[in-house]
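We emphasize that the prediction below concerns an isolated chain of 181 residues; any contacts that depend on oligomerization or on bound cofactors are therefore not represented. The input was used exactly as deposited, without trimming of termini.
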Amino acid sequence: MEQRENILNEEIKEKIKEEIKDSDIIKLSHELTYRRYLLSDGKIRSFFRKVSIPEYLALHIIKESGQKGDSGKTYLKEIADSMQRTVRQTSHLVKALQERGMLAWSHDGDGSEGTYVTITDSGKKMLAEEEDMLKQYYRRVFARFGKENLMQLLTLMRQLESVMGAEFKEMGAAVNDGTDE
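Result of the prediction step, given as a C-alpha coordinate string:
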Protein backbone atom coordinates (compact mmCIF):
# COMPACT_ATOMS: atom_id res chain seq x y z
CA MET A 1 0.00 0.00 0.00
CA GLU A 2 2.76 2.44 0.97
CA GLN A 3 4.77 1.55 -2.14
CA ARG A 4 1.72 2.27 -4.32
CA GLU A 5 1.29 5.70 -2.64
CA ASN A 6 4.97 6.48 -3.26
CA ILE A 7 4.59 5.57 -6.95
CA LEU A 8 1.49 7.76 -7.21
CA ASN A 9 3.27 10.64 -5.48
CA GLU A 10 6.19 10.35 -7.91
CA GLU A 11 3.78 10.33 -10.85
CA ILE A 12 2.10 13.47 -9.52
CA LYS A 13 5.46 15.19 -9.07
CA GLU A 14 6.50 14.33 -12.64
CA LYS A 15 3.17 15.56 -14.00
CA ILE A 16 3.59 18.83 -12.11
CA LYS A 17 7.11 19.31 -13.48
CA GLU A 18 5.90 18.71 -17.02
CA GLU A 19 2.87 20.99 -16.89
CA ILE A 20 3.95 23.98 -14.82
CA LYS A 21 7.31 25.73 -14.95
CA ASP A 22 8.87 26.95 -11.71
CA SER A 23 8.52 30.59 -12.75
CA ASP A 24 4.80 30.03 -13.34
CA ILE A 25 4.43 28.31 -9.98
CA ILE A 26 5.96 31.34 -8.26
CA LYS A 27 3.64 33.74 -10.09
CA LEU A 28 0.55 31.62 -9.53
CA SER A 29 1.30 30.93 -5.87
CA HIS A 30 1.84 34.63 -5.25
CA GLU A 31 -1.42 35.52 -7.00
CA LEU A 32 -3.34 32.86 -5.08
CA THR A 33 -1.86 33.99 -1.76
CA TYR A 34 -2.62 37.62 -2.60
CA ARG A 35 -6.22 36.88 -3.61
CA ARG A 36 -6.82 34.81 -0.50
CA TYR A 37 -5.43 37.66 1.57
CA LEU A 38 -7.73 40.18 -0.10
CA LEU A 39 -10.76 37.96 0.37
CA SER A 40 -10.05 37.06 3.97
CA ASP A 41 -8.23 40.05 5.38
CA GLY A 42 -9.00 42.93 3.10
CA LYS A 43 -11.72 45.52 2.99
CA ILE A 44 -14.49 43.22 4.20
CA ARG A 45 -13.14 43.66 7.73
CA SER A 46 -14.45 47.24 7.72
CA PHE A 47 -18.05 45.95 7.61
CA PHE A 48 -17.71 44.34 11.03
CA ARG A 49 -18.38 47.01 13.60
CA LYS A 50 -19.02 45.06 16.80
CA VAL A 51 -17.18 41.77 16.31
CA SER A 52 -14.12 40.42 14.54
CA ILE A 53 -14.47 38.12 11.53
CA PRO A 54 -13.68 34.98 13.60
CA GLU A 55 -16.25 36.05 16.21
CA TYR A 56 -18.84 36.62 13.50
CA LEU A 57 -18.12 33.20 11.98
CA ALA A 58 -18.39 31.53 15.39
CA LEU A 59 -21.69 33.25 16.14
CA HIS A 60 -23.04 32.28 12.74
CA ILE A 61 -22.01 28.64 13.24
CA ILE A 62 -23.62 28.61 16.69
CA LYS A 63 -26.82 30.18 15.40
CA GLU A 64 -27.09 27.73 12.48
CA SER A 65 -26.22 24.73 14.61
CA GLY A 66 -28.68 25.79 17.29
CA GLN A 67 -31.47 26.01 14.72
CA LYS A 68 -30.82 22.45 13.53
CA GLY A 69 -31.28 20.85 16.93
CA ASP A 70 -34.13 21.41 19.35
CA SER A 71 -31.78 22.11 22.29
CA GLY A 72 -29.96 25.07 20.73
CA LYS A 73 -26.67 23.59 21.96
CA THR A 74 -23.50 23.88 19.91
CA TYR A 75 -20.53 21.94 21.21
CA LEU A 76 -17.13 23.59 21.31
CA LYS A 77 -15.67 20.80 19.18
CA GLU A 78 -18.24 21.49 16.43
CA ILE A 79 -17.22 25.14 16.31
CA ALA A 80 -13.51 24.27 16.31
CA ASP A 81 -13.96 21.76 13.49
CA SER A 82 -16.07 24.15 11.40
CA MET A 83 -13.56 26.97 11.80
CA GLN A 84 -10.53 24.67 11.44
CA ARG A 85 -9.13 25.85 14.76
CA THR A 86 -8.00 24.05 17.86
CA VAL A 87 -10.44 23.63 20.73
CA ARG A 88 -8.14 25.85 22.80
CA GLN A 89 -8.30 28.70 20.24
CA THR A 90 -12.04 28.26 19.98
CA SER A 91 -12.37 28.29 23.75
CA HIS A 92 -10.67 31.72 23.93
CA LEU A 93 -12.92 33.05 21.18
CA VAL A 94 -16.07 31.73 22.87
CA LYS A 95 -14.96 33.09 26.24
CA ALA A 96 -14.60 36.59 24.76
CA LEU A 97 -18.11 36.36 23.28
CA GLN A 98 -19.50 35.06 26.58
CA GLU A 99 -17.91 37.94 28.50
CA ARG A 100 -19.70 40.36 26.18
CA GLY A 101 -23.03 38.64 26.81
CA MET A 102 -23.45 37.15 23.34
CA LEU A 103 -23.21 33.51 24.40
CA ALA A 104 -24.07 31.34 27.36
CA TRP A 105 -21.51 28.63 28.05
CA SER A 106 -22.40 25.40 29.82
CA HIS A 107 -21.61 21.70 29.93
CA ASP A 108 -23.33 18.35 30.03
CA GLY A 109 -23.06 16.41 33.27
CA ASP A 110 -19.80 17.07 35.06
CA GLY A 111 -18.24 18.61 31.94
CA SER A 112 -16.60 15.43 30.68
CA GLU A 113 -19.60 14.76 28.44
CA GLY A 114 -19.17 17.97 26.46
CA THR A 115 -18.94 21.73 26.67
CA TYR A 116 -21.46 23.67 24.66
CA VAL A 117 -22.69 27.19 24.04
CA THR A 118 -26.00 28.76 23.16
CA ILE A 119 -26.47 32.14 21.56
CA THR A 120 -28.20 34.76 23.74
CA ASP A 121 -30.79 37.27 22.60
CA SER A 122 -28.07 39.91 22.71
CA GLY A 123 -25.88 37.74 20.47
CA LYS A 124 -28.75 37.15 18.03
CA LYS A 125 -29.46 40.87 17.83
CA MET A 126 -25.82 41.80 17.25
CA LEU A 127 -25.43 39.04 14.63
CA ALA A 128 -28.54 40.26 12.79
CA GLU A 129 -27.12 43.81 12.70
CA GLU A 130 -23.81 42.60 11.26
CA GLU A 131 -25.62 40.39 8.74
CA ASP A 132 -27.75 43.33 7.53
CA MET A 133 -24.63 45.25 6.50
CA LEU A 134 -23.14 42.19 4.80
CA LYS A 135 -26.40 41.47 2.96
CA GLN A 136 -26.45 44.98 1.50
CA TYR A 137 -22.89 44.67 0.26
CA TYR A 138 -23.00 41.09 -1.02
CA ARG A 139 -26.40 41.50 -2.70
CA ARG A 140 -24.81 44.09 -4.98
CA VAL A 141 -21.61 42.06 -5.48
CA PHE A 142 -23.54 38.89 -6.36
CA ALA A 143 -25.81 40.79 -8.75
CA ARG A 144 -22.76 42.05 -10.64
CA PHE A 145 -20.75 38.82 -10.45
CA GLY A 146 -23.66 36.49 -11.19
CA LYS A 147 -25.12 33.61 -9.20
CA GLU A 148 -23.73 30.93 -11.53
CA ASN A 149 -20.24 32.43 -11.37
CA LEU A 150 -20.47 32.55 -7.59
CA MET A 151 -21.62 28.94 -7.30
CA GLN A 152 -18.84 27.78 -9.63
CA LEU A 153 -16.26 29.82 -7.71
CA LEU A 154 -17.35 28.40 -4.36
CA THR A 155 -17.24 24.85 -5.71
CA LEU A 156 -13.73 25.41 -7.07
CA MET A 157 -12.61 27.04 -3.81
CA ARG A 158 -13.83 24.03 -1.81
CA GLN A 159 -11.96 21.70 -4.15
CA LEU A 160 -8.82 23.81 -3.91
CA GLU A 161 -9.04 23.92 -0.10
CA SER A 162 -9.36 20.13 -0.04
CA VAL A 163 -6.31 19.63 -2.26
CA MET A 164 -4.30 22.24 -0.36
CA GLY A 165 -5.22 20.64 2.96
CA ALA A 166 -4.18 17.20 1.74
CA GLU A 167 -0.86 18.56 0.42
CA PHE A 168 -0.23 20.43 3.65
CA LYS A 169 -0.78 17.26 5.68
CA GLU A 170 1.46 15.28 3.36
CA MET A 171 4.24 17.87 3.49
CA GLY A 172 3.86 18.18 7.25
CA ALA A 173 4.20 14.43 7.57
CA ALA A 174 7.30 14.49 5.36
CA VAL A 175 8.87 17.24 7.48
CA ASN A 176 8.02 15.38 10.68
CA ASP A 177 9.42 12.14 9.28
CA GLY A 178 12.74 13.86 8.66
CA THR A 179 13.03 15.40 12.11
CA ASP A 180 12.02 12.40 14.19
CA GLU A 181 15.01 10.30 13.25
